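Field reference: "sequence" (input) and "structure" (output). Example, DoxX family protein:
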Amino acid sequence: MSTTIDQKVRDTRSATLAEAGSWTALEKASFRIAFIYFVIQSVPLDWKYYRDLFKINWLNPGYGDIFRLARYSPRFFDGSDTFANWLVVLVIAVAGGIFWGTRDKESQEYNKLYYWLRVIVRYRLAVGLIAYGFIKFFPLQSPFPSISNLNTAYGDLSAWKLFALSLGVVPDYQSFLGAVEILGGLLLLHRRTTTIATLIIIPFTGNVFISNLAYEGGEYVYSFYLIVLALFLFAFDAKRLYSVLSLEQPTLPNRFNPIFTTEWQKYGRLVLKAGFIFIFVFLYGVKTYAGYRQSPYHYPQKPGIENTAGLYNVREFSINGQQLPYSPLDSVRWKDVVFEKWATISVRSGAPEKIDQALEEQIHAEDEKRNFEQAGAGGRHYYSYTFDQAGRKLTLTNKVAPSDQLILNLSRPDSSTILLSGVNAKRDSIHVVLDKVQKKYLFEEVKKVGRRGEFKL
């Protein structure tokens, strides 16, 4: 029995040594194309990337700055990311691979280049996962629904908005998803745990990809990009795993290691790795936590009018002196108004609205660019506002159609009533009486008593 096992080990060792020798012509040609393809996909070659890199205040960078660096993927066309960019990269890689083959007739193998290509892909995949992992671990990516979103009809929300809001009401689950991504990214930082990392990443990111397709999200190209990187890394050990797990044959690990002949190479490698971990793990993690505690990025930070947050029913609505009774078919009369905790007001009415179609994850520092609350949401018109406390003047600007601007005077005869009077974008005079609705929300009541407690809505 032992003789048979020893013979299998010797046969396996011989096969491994043979693999480490000359490559076939097809293997070399395929590698040349793959090398160029994955280098272009992984290494930032766009000058705009480095322009943004040097614009960052590295004495006090924001987590959004680091996220944008980590989110890089090559783009040759304006607009949202598409697979057409991949096609361009593939054409360049094929052309470059053919040219490389005509110039390199002597190489018998590319083991060293293959090793370094895997290093590049490992770190590129790691930073992509960690970047998304932290904004989930500290539940920022999908925040709690705003009051406006909670009072928007189900059918007026896009499929992707419903998915994001559903994830936002379970922050613990969102944190778990982030922890899985961070774990996968950290395992990629060590060569020996790369295969374990890919076995975590491929099904996890595959689920993200399918979710984007099913819910019409905007990250399906990027999530599939991460899957391809993970599959490339997994392919290195796939044959050995098959031999061990399926064929139950003795299998030798790949023991190729780069040789660093000079001191600067040895220590330079350690410095680069330490710098990577410091920026994309430690610094980014600290900054993301600070953002979670102080300035979540989806909703504006400018505070709204004090003690006004809530849902208001429109008791009276007059335009040019004519009072309009409530009608669900009326496209002019307002139905209800929401004052958010921040400087946003949303109005539900039957008037046609332009819907913000933003789908890709963006972290904006400026309130004006923070569009999560209105993205993928119909049925309501969203306005940012400024309020002159002394003159009680309220200026509303539509977040999606800036030409839609209202100038109103605000008064409060009591704590539950708001009176608005002024002009709309068409310079029609309007007068509105709002009554606050003492509405309870299911997820808030459950939080108070626990899932097994009793409550009434």
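The radius of gyration is 29 Å.
The first strand starts at residue 310 and ends at 319.
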